[in-house]
Design goal:
Blueprint lengths: L24 H21 L9 H19 L4 H14 L1 H19 L2 H12 L2 H19 L2 H18 L4 H18 L4 H10 L3 H29 L8 H11 L8 H11 L4 H19 L1 H7 L3 H10 L2 E2 L5 H4 L3 E2 L6 H19 L2 H11 L4 H18 L3 H18 L4 H13 L9 H10 L3 H4 L4 H15 L13
Antiparallel strand pairs: 1-2
Helix pairs in contact: 1-2, 1-18, 2-17, 3-17, 4-13, 4-15, 5-7, 5-11, 6-7, 6-8, 6-10, 7-8, 7-22, 8-10, 9-20, 9-21, 10-21, 10-24, 12-13, 13-15, 14-15, 17-22, 18-19, 18-20, 19-20, 19-21, 19-24, 20-21, 21-24
């Protein structure tokens, strides 16, 4: 789902799955149970403030300490655990840089007028009656073209959230539509790294995998579009009535011009030309900074006496641009790189927890336990789905949620005479798309941070993402399009 240089870029041939025969299933689950309990208590009873602003990060670190204690009691050396932590942390160096650049991009796109221009023209084209299904379709097309749900969210997604907010649509609905479309497009794109990773692990080829995915993916996205189309007729919006005031406020504050769209178009063009995301995003920041000086001289002067300092501040720290319409003031604010620190700390904490869990052999133990209960074809599919979702929760990384179950279940699928594309499709239907539904997973943390919408707010509206594993289980239960190598097994 992520760019080829995004979180935990795993080399399949070098990905080890650490097993520990000394560890039993209950010991492997101790850190998970305590972690889930603390997170639930924090969210339900402490409003996410059990240990302050960084509660979830501290809870993940506590979970890691508990996992380390379990490891010590099962003859796992500190060196092994630290090695896995280091491998995890090393894998997120580039993703952290990307997150910082996304923060800088949001800041410079604000002061340059790019985001206000998107909102200004978008308000005139996208009305509430078609907005949510249009979000799904637009993000799906961009994501298919770029192969990245992350890039889609960081560019078009941000603009759509802004437009929808101005129309008075709940941000959770907008983010759910954006994420549904982005993950559909990414999942079906031959440019996506997870779309290449899943068949490589399962033992099939890329285009066989994509063709086989359409069987479950197309019904899921069609249901998603129907849902958002119906929802659009039911929501009560206020933005349409205030449209004139909103447009006037934007036009008064910023210099709005179609030329501003050259900045996002240039970034998308760079990505389509397979420019490295770091380079594409960095150039997007530079282009926006130049356009800020050209088009938004008065805005920069209002932020600081030095226009250069105003632009640099938008890159690094908070930027707030006031208009004569209160509903736009929160929309036209950005945290810059500083605004991404919470997400970065969450990802680092998740990688530490996941590294220790892998180092003590807990990830492999949980997956093998699921494999033992797969006594039927449906049980095999269900165990794979649960394993992928479980690893997204425990390891906090979608690549591990594809690689570990893929390696663990490959022989089981072969033994039952099932074609490898059954496994690769299931890995994507459950491992790839559900990662964004876990707040402390790298994908959930990223999407929440970039779109500015909490996972709990968009969870129920990310229809495509939580519907996909149910769809694959439905097809497995009724033995629909389950391709076989040999004879069908009961």
């Amino acid at each position: 789902m992520k760019d080829s240089s995004n979180l935990s870029k795993i080399k399949v041939d070098h990905q080890n799955i650490i097993e520990n025969k000394e560890l039993n299933i209950w010991e492997a689950l101790i850190p998970v149970i305590i972690l889930m309990g603390l997170l639930f208590y924090n969210i339900q009873f402490q409003d996410g403030e059990l240990l302050g602003e960084y509660s979830n990060q501290f809870i993940l670190l506590i979970g890691g300490i508990i996992a380390a204690v379990v490891g010590f009691f099962n003859k796992v050396s500190l060196f092994n655990m630290l090695t896995e932590i280091w491998e995890n942390l090393r894998s997120i160096f580039i993703p952290i840089l990307i997150l910082l650049l996304v923060g800088a991009l949001a800041g410079t796109w604000l002061v340059s007028g790019v985001i206000p221009a998107m909102v200004y023209y978008g308000l005139q084209v996208l009305n509430p009656s078609i907005f949510l299904p249009a979000c799904v379709i637009i993000c799906a097309l961009i994501s298919i073209a770029t192969g990245s749900s992350w890039t889609t969210s960081a560019t078009v997604g941000i603009a759509l959230v802004g437009i929808g907010t101005a129309l008075g649509i709940h941000t959770g609905m907008i983010a759910g539509a954006v994420i549904s479309g982005a993950y559909f497009g990414d999942k079906m794109s031959p440019l996506s790294d997870t779309t290449n990773l899943a068949p490589a692990i399962a033992g099939t080829d890329l285009f066989t995998h994509i063709r086989y995915m359409t069987i479950t993916t197309v019904p899921s996205i069609l249901i998603t579009l129907v849902f958002f189309s119906v929802l659009s007729t039911l929501i009560d919006t206020t933005g349409r009535a205030d449209l004139t005031d909103l447009l006037s406020a934007i036009d008064t504050t910023f210099t709005i011009s179609p030329w501003l769209f050259l900045v996002p178009l240039a970034v998308i063009a760079l990505i389509l030309m397979k420019t490295k995301p770091l380079v594409a995003l960095a150039l997007g920041v530079i282009f926006a900074a130049v356009f800020a000086f050209i088009f938004q001289s008065s805005v920069l002067s209002g932020l600081n006496d030095s226009k250069l300092f105003a632009v640099l501040s938008s890159v690094v720290t908070d930027t707030q641009i006031s208009t004569n319409n209160e509903s736009l003031n929160e929309l036209f604010s950005s945290g810059g790189m500083q605004g991404m620190l919470w997400t970065i700390f969450l990802i680092i904490s998740a990688m530490i927890f996941g590294g220790i869990m892998d180092g003590i052999g807990a990830l492999a133990r949980v997956t093998k336990a699921l494999l033992t209960v797969a006594t039927s074809v449906f049980g095999l599919f269900a165990s794979t789905v649960l394993s992928c979702i479980g690893l997204n929760t425990i390891a906090s990384d979608q690549y591990l949620a594809i690689v570990i179950p893929g390696k663990m279940f490959k022989n089981a699928f072969d033994d039952r005479g099932l074609a490898p594309e059954n496994l690769s499709r299931t890995l994507e239907d459950s491992g790839t798309v559900t990662s964004v539904l876990i707040p402390w997973n790298t994908c959930g943390a990223y999407q929440s941070g970039v779109l500015g919408v909490g996972v709990s707010d968009y969870f129920m509206y990310a229809i495509f993402n939580w519907l996909s594993p149910f769809t694959t289980l439905f097809f497995a239960a009724f033995k629909i399009k389950i391709k076989q190598l040999k004879t069908k097994l009961a």
